[in-house]
Amino acid sequence: MFEKIREKYLLNKTQIIEIDTLGNILNSDNRIFNLSGVGQIYDFHPFFYSIESLLSLKNCEQIFYCIHIEHLNVQKSVDVFFTNTESENPILILYDFTEHYTNFQHIAQEKNETVLNFHLEELKTKLLQAEKEFKNKFMANVGHDLKTPLGASLWFINMLEKTELTNSQREAVLLLKETNTLIKGLIDDILDLSKLELGKISLDENWENLSDIIKHIQSIITPKSNQNGLQFTVEFEQNQLPQFIYTDKVRLQQILINLLDNSIKFTRKGYVKLSVKNIEKQKDTAQLLFEVEDTGIGMKITNKNDIYNSFTKLHNQKNIEGSGLGLSIVSNLITLMQGDIHYVTQLNQGTTFSILLPFKTK
Amino acid sequence: MNNSKKIVLIGHFGVGKSSLVRRYVQNTFTDNYMVTIGVHIVKKEIQLNQKSITLIIWDIEGKDDIKKVRASYLIGTSGFIYVVDPTRPQTYEHITSEINFITTQYPKAKYLTVANKSDLIEPEEIKRLFDSLQIKIDYFASAKSGDEVSSVFENLAQQLLDNV
Ligand SMILES: Nc1nc2c(ncn2[C@@H]2O[C@H](COP(=O)(O)OP(=O)(O)OP(=O)(O)O)[C@@H](O)[C@H]2O)c(=O)[nH]1
Ligand SMILES: [Mg+2]
Fold it and tell me: Measured by CB atoms within 10 angstroms of the end CB, which terminus of chain A is less buried, N or C?
């Protein structure tokens, strides 16, 4: 019975090959690989070149583990045992451990792959970071280089304005001045954004009067919206709001003016509204909700966070100027202030931006 | 039998040993990682200056320590290719002692050091990196782009031809 079991389960897992000292195959039981017609062991598989140096040795035994051999479409992972102590001629014994080694491979695969993938992810992030930093440094440098000549040109325009000019010349100078101011605003945005993304802007916080801040914004936005035939309203519940907040006034105004400017730009008729609410009143802190609402053209959004990326232009309207930098500056500043920004928008109905910011109060 | 020489690729797992062999022998590349266990052996016959040589290339499983490589795999090796991944410092931090091991255990064998995956790093940066660590790298290759891959094998083969 044992012989039967051995025949069925074990013999097909081993193969014995007899060769001569020149590597010619003399005998093979062909249990795993069919070697009939193969002259030299080297023609069987290149692995066997490695036993060439053993052939001349006396009383040599050597085992080689886990050799992958493919022959006539049979693929096996075998251990190879070499001996020339048994008979006159060298003997090779092949043990088929394919299943065992395949399991082994799966385990190693999982382990190594995890390590390598983790490393690749890390590498990618680093590369992206470096790219971003390069972009920001580049922008900061270019922006800086542009500022000096632009300043000079503005100075010359101001000089020109003071000279005696004909009406049409004066008109031209005014236009020139407007254009230059626009460019200056753009460069300031670029510089701001690159500094923000490089983490080179810190807040300059002080105790500020909240209603003064809002009044200042009102004084800037009201004439602009009037010019565009829009109504600008401010909702400000004085008794619900803290009188003093600890903040960087300039940056807070920058955020709100930026959003309001945007609203005016994209609204043809209707209104633009700013409201301020106190969401969470504690003794020394408050969460203020600023909302900028318009009845403008709205945005067609494919990716919700895309709008805060620099250089994303949301509105493909050709007649509306803007670099798309404004929103990324806003979102960067809000992050710096540990706040949150959200928006809802509907095409041809309008957009509302909501900003939640925490403040120390008194 | 003609002039055959055994070449073994050594190095940590995932540095690209199998990929280098695949690029050299089949001129293909894949991003899919298939971990080698044991050894895959391929043969390639080449001509160098009218002399022919048969390379028996042993692509063995990666080990972080050459002493852990099965000794039977290294019997009769004429040439070693030590492969590192320049993006993973662990793969080259002990290269000097690993090379020492080769030169003392296999004094007659030739060897080359290769930084693979050089497509992932700027050429200047990669050279500066190894210079600063005083590690001698013979080839900055990429199995992915194919850069310098055949030079590695041919240079080693040439050394083995000169050796006889
Ligand atoms: N970018 C890039 N990736 C490579 C290069 N060479 C190999 N790879 C990738 O690196 C991973 C590992 O490559 P392998 O050739 O399997 O590495 P190995 O050294 O044989 O690994 P082990 O068999 O586990 O020792 C695979 O995902 C390859 O696609 C290369 O030159 N450039
Ligand atoms: Mg491999």
Answer: N
DSSP state for residue A62 in the 8-state scheme: E
| Bridging pattern class, strands B4-10 and B39-48 | unpaired
Nearest partner of A53 among B51, B72, B112, judged by Cα: B72
Q: Which two tokens stand for residue A193?
A: 């954004």
| A149 interfaces chain B, CB cutoff of 8 Å | no
DSSP string, B25-62: HH----SS-----SEEEEEEEEEETTEEEEEEEEEEPP
* Structure confidence by residue, pLDDT tens digits, A53-86: 899 888 999 999 999 999 999 999 999 999 998 7
- pLDDT category, A310, cuts 50, 70, 90? low
Please state, rounded to an integer, the average pLDDT across all residues of chain A: 89
Q: Which residue of A has its CA nearest to B45?
A: A46
Report, as an integer, the average pLDDT of B150-163: 92
Query: CA–CA separation, B17 vs B12, rounded Å?
Result: 9
Distance CA A184, CA A178 (A): 10
Angle between helices B17-26 and B149-163 (to 10 degrees): 80
DSSP states along A100-139: HHHHHHHHHHHHHHHHHHHHHHHHHHHHHHHHHHHHHHHH
CA-based torsion, B142, B146, B150, B155: positive or negative: negative
Q: Which residues of B touch A68 (CB under 8 A)?
A: 38-41
pLDDT in the model for residue A322? 53
CATH number of the domain bearing residue B125: 3.40.50.300
Distance B1 CA to ligand 2 centre (A): 29
This complex has an ipTM of 0.93
Look at residue A223 and give its three-state secondary structure: helix
**Centre of ligand 1 from the C-alpha of residue B20, in Å:** 8
pLDDT value at position B1?
47
Q: Which range has the worst mean pLDDT, A24-38, A181-195, A326-340, B72-86? A: A181-195
DSSP string across B64-109: SSGGGS-HHHHTT--EEEEEE-TT-GGGTTTHHHHHHHHHHHSTT-
For residue A253, which of A281, A289, A220 has the smallest C-alpha distance?
A: A220
Query: Which DSSP helix (H) or strand (E) runs through A215?
Result: helix A210-227
Q: Does A344 touch chain B (CB under 8 A)?
A: no
- Neighboring chain A residues of B33 at a CB cutoff of 8 Å: 109, 112-113, 116
Phi, psi (rounded to 5 degrees) for A334:
-65, -40
Interval B17-31 mean pLDDT: 97
Q: What is the pLDDT of residue A131?
A: 85
Range of the domain at B105: 2-162
Helix (H) or strand (E) holding A288: strand A285-294
Number of domains in chain B: 1
Q: Which of B9, B17, B19 to mutate to test the pocket of ligand 1 (most atoms within 8 A of CB)?
A: B19
